[in-house]
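Limitations
The structure tokens in this dataset are predictions for the assembled complex, not deposited experimental models. Users should treat interface geometry with appropriate caution, especially where small molecules or nucleic acid strands are included. An illustrative entry is reproduced here so readers can see what is and is not provided.
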Amino acid sequence: MEKTVERLALYRRLLKNQLRNGKTYIYSHQLAEISGYSAAIVRRDLMNIGYYGTPRHGYEIKALIECLDVFFDKPDVKNLILVGAGNLGRALIAYFTKDKSEYNLVAAFDSDPLKVNLKYNGCPCHSLEKIADVVADLKASVGIITVPAENAQSVADLMVKNRIKGILNFAPLSLNVPDSVYVENVDLALMLEKVLYFSVHRRQEETGKK
Amino acid sequence: MEKTVERLALYRRLLKNQLRNGKTYIYSHQLAEISGYSAAIVRRDLMNIGYYGTPRHGYEIKALIECLDVFFDKPDVKNLILVGAGNLGRALIAYFTKDKSEYNLVAAFDSDPLKVNLKYNGCPCHSLEKIADVVADLKASVGIITVPAENAQSVADLMVKNRIKGILNFAPLSLNVPDSVYVENVDLALMLEKVLYFSVHRRQEETGKK
DNA sequence: GCCTGTGAAGCTATTCACAGCT
DNA sequence: AGCTGTGAATAGCTTCACAGGC
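Predicted assembly:
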């Protein structure tokens, strides 16, 4: 189901674009085309969330988006915090607050006193000591970690202690958290290594011992 | 094999740390512990690249690193370029050039004339028109795309035309490139959506209709 | 004819579990 | 006793291929 969730989020974004462009119906093979996946998997994904199209017109875009919104708990608002206002952290603040972003990045934190009390793209930066108060006040439930590896585990511990339920972690190490907290790691160096590797060793070449 | 490659890159990094800390041998369950994977998968991954340990001491760290270096074509140097020196692009330049980075980010490109001819962390920023010359001169083979979605496909086309063989794409769309070019997508908004989702719907809860 | 929904098949990835070594 | 290497089992994901509907 994990992969399915990733794709559904993508479908939703693409469908909103289509709607904006005036389309009202879409076939699985069209959604496949723009998403880069196969038509079969598109159909199965939609089947999994219980949305049904018709052979005549395919899927009704508006209704499907609503269905996806429900799947992603649309009426709920989940507030986000970010810890580590370095280069990457500030870039992410910009990314997640830009124009009509639907994300609620409500606060950033950094240990550097020079950054504290500044605002980045309208997002206030606090001292790390304030995390308990701010998280409780703003009812944040998801955190983004962009601190150096050395500090990441202690930041994660702080987040867990303050009832953060999901973490997007950019620090290059594996965090230790209770099972009830979901962690998604984004290890930029590893992704680059992977590209470097596959830029030479194309996927499943027929030559070679296996 | 794809997942295996990702883990191997991680093992290599972790093993280098261990070596720096004076360790010389490591057991599969120890590498599992620090990497966050299972001992069984660590053993199978190492088996896949043909490195063999001994029941007595486990794996010899130094020799294993060398083996991994060969696997990742160590003697070769692959030069990188980055297109799109916005917030995220500049953060990545900083990330991939910092301290003793083993990556060779040799040039950045941007269409904004104000950025052209600047240097970011020592990395020169060129006008996009120069891409053919610079890529040929510096023999870059992998590119990072951090431009807005609207421009990403044309940047990818340019890269392909200039014999780039691997792309790390941060633009939120699926790029159209020939099969011979490897693309890894990093869609930050989707990763965040995933965390938002799983922060509420924990993975395989026993409740629910299925 | 061209679409959807879906059982069944096919692949890939992971874990189990244990023989064999030291 | 405690480790590795690995066949076999399991789980998870994707594609095939086709019945059924308009």
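Some entries come with short summary sentences. For this one: Chain A has two domains: 2-72, 76-189.
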